[in-house]
Design goal:
This protein is α/β, with parallel strands linked by helices and 304 residues long. The protein has two domains: 100 residues, Alpha-Beta Plaits (2-Layer Sandwich), CATH 3.30.70; 167 residues, Rossmann fold (3-Layer(aba) Sandwich), CATH 3.40.50.150. Helix content is 29%, strand content 34%. Strand 10, helix 5 and strand 11 form a beta-alpha-beta unit. The longest helix is centred in the C-terminal third of the chain and has 14 residues.
Length: 304
């Protein structure tokens, strides 16, 4: 099969929203290429905030292609975005493999190592290695929000914790949580493709029995009330705010929430939503335009 690759350059802070909009028209494949600059083998990457992210969607070349391109343009226009759409034709195998060139072994925090499944790597003593094949699902360890969530999991996961991962994407955070000592993790995502990828990655890392991956999102379900010691939600500011009551209900008293995917100008709104749900922010991590917060249920006054 032949595919049409459509590229749209958008501001970094709007890339996730643009990807979600494009996914409504191109459910078979959407990828984000953030402007990341490698800093060194042990230093990770830096987000070049002045450069745009490139969101790519893939559509089959058939008699409906023109109709779908118009729908794609309309979906971006509805967000207030009018990027010039660049197109090129790619073969199925080229599409399946080209994105792999962007991903390399990454060290995160003190012990975590993210190894793309096709890259050779020899671990050092003490390394916690996550073998990852993200496919088209979000979560490779390169995006600043994913890296910050991984670093915070390394700090906050305790032996035997029960963890919730909302918007699991590739499953990277769920796998990291159990490899860092959590007893088990419930990983949720509304995207069926992400669910398949996350299950595959849990199996690849030998933790499928401890990572339960399910399609759907979090609701205020009494069955999940006070069921988790720690929750992580690397999604969007709007989604974290909307899910704040359900997240607070799912956490045990004194439980920890890691919320990310928050752009700077939405932090106060997320903080207010969490406060209304009974959670207090105790830490905020800043990487470029992105904010990642740590909050606790029934905790002390809010972090400045």
């Amino acid at each position: 099969m032949t595919w049409c690759e459509i590229s749209a350059a958008v501001p970094v802070e709007l890339a996730e929203l643009a990807a979600e909009a494009m996914r409504t028209v191109a459910p078979d494949g959407v990828a984000i290429e953030d402007p990341l600059i490698p800093l060194g083998p042990d230093e990770g990457v830096r987000l070049e905030r002045h450069r745009p992210s490139v969101v790519k969607a893939y559509l089959p070349v058939d008699d409906r292609l023109g109709e779908r391109l118009d729908a794609l343009d309309a979906a971006l226009t509805a967000l207030g975005l009018r990027p010039a759409l660049r197109t090129r034709t790619v073969r199925a195998q080229d599409w399946a493999d080209a994105w792999k060139e962007h991903f390399h072994v990454e060290r995160v925090g003190r012990r975590l190592v993210i190894r793309p499944s096709w890259r050779p790597f020899t671990p050092q003593p003490g390394d916690v290695v996550i073998d990852l094949d993200p496919g088209m699902a979000f979560g490779t360890g390169q995006h600043p929000t994913t890296r910050t969530c991984l670093e915070l999991l390394e700090e906050h996961v305790r032996l035997g914790d029960v963890v919730l991962d909302v918007g699991t994407g590739s499953g990277i955070l769920a796998v990291a949580a159990v490899k860092l000592g959590a007893a088990r993790c419930l990983a949720l995502d509304v995207d069926p493709q992400a669910v398949r990828v996350a299950r595959d990655n849990a199996a690849r890392n030998g933790v499928a029995e401890r990572v339960q991956v399910a399609e759907g999102t979090l609701t205020a379900d009494d069955a999940l009330r006070h069921a988790f010691d720690l929750a992580v939600a690397n999604i969007t500011a709007a989604a974290v705010a909307a899910l704040a009551p359900a997240l607070a209900t799912a956490l045990r008293p004194g439980g920890t929430l890691i919320g990310s995917g928050i752009v700077a100008d939405r932090l106060d709104a997320v903080r207010a939503a969490l406060a209304a749900a009974g959670c207090s922010v105790t830490d905020v991590r800043v990487v470029g335009d992105w904010r990642t917060l740590v909050a606790r249920t029934g905790s002390t006054p809010d972090h400045p």
